[in-house]
């Protein structure tokens, strides 16, 4: 099952750099990726990183031989199918809008449908929200998703390893995501006794 792809969805929350680094790490680890980017996800890639299209994204994320892109409006694409092999899904960054839709099971886009399939098939679903502060609606949606089996992994890097760069902060969060996926790569700080 480890040859099965990870579905990586990028949505319209701030933090495009987390998503770009995550794709780069998965590509370096030769993990097959089914990639879906929402319209506002593209807008954030452009506004935060000047990545305007697939060519721009390829330039910053290494070897794409294992990446397949799907349009978010194609609700019949492979990640929409429960019978297609899958290693799970990450939504990074995850907007509160997409998070709410997944919590309600609306499946009005490929991203929402693929996440819904992960929940019904009891596969790993990791959501990386970025919003502050949270409303009670946001919090209730996160609790609902956690109770349904998703992992809510906020983009909240720690500081105990004394990061000196934005890259280190990003790797803190991306390291947690890949650890949840069970991908064996060493990025971000690791706990070790006596050091
Ligand atoms: C520049 C910009 C920044 C945004 N930042 C966030 C954010 O950090 N968190 C969030 O939940 N929504 C944010 N939004 C709002 C979402 O993009 C909006 O709810 C959108 O409908 C989400 O669509 P999507 O989930 O399909 O990408 C932002 C929107 C824009 C245009």
- The number of strands is 6
Main sheet?
Answer: 6 strands, parallel
Write out the distinct hetero groups bound to the structure. Answer: flavin mononucleotide
Q: Please tell me how large the radius of gyration is.
A: 16 Å
Report on this model:
With 195 residues, this protein is an alpha/beta fold. It is built from 7 helices and 6 strands. Strands 3-2-1-4-5-6 form a 6-stranded parallel sheet, with helices on both faces. Helix 4 (96-104) packs across helix 6. The longest helix is centred in the C-terminal third of the chain and has 16 residues, at 166-181. The termini are far apart.
Give a short overview.
The chain is α/β, with parallel strands linked by helices and 195 residues long. It has helices spanning 16-28, 39-49, 54-59, 96-104, 110-120, 136-147, 166-181; strands at 6-10, 33-37, 67-70, 88-94, 125-129, 151-152.
């Amino acid at each position: 099952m480890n040859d099965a792809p990870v579905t990586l969805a990028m949505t319209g929350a701030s933090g495009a750099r987390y998503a770009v680094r995550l794709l780069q790490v998965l590509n370096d680890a030769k993990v097959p990726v089914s990639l879906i980017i929402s319209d506002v996800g593209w807008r954030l890639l452009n506004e935060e990183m000047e990545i305007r299209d697939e060519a721009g994204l390829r330039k910053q994320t290494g070897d794409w031989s294992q990446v397949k892109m799907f349009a978010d409006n194609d609700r019949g694409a492979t990640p929409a199918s429960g019978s297609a092999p899958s290693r799970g899904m990450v939504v990074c960054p995850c907007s509160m809008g997409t998070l709410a839709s997944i919590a309600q099971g609306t499946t009005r886009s490929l991203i929402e449908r693929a996440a819904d399939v992960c929940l019904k098939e009891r596969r790993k679903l990791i959501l990386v929200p970025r919003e502050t502060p949270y409303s009670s609606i946001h919090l209730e949606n996160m609790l609902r998703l956690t109770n349904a089996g998703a992992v809510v992994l906020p983009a909240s890097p720690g500081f105990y390893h004394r990061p000196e760069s934005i890259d280190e902060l990003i790797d803190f969060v991306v390291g947690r995501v890949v650890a949840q996926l069970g991908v064996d790569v060493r990025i971000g700080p690791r706990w070790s006794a006596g050091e």
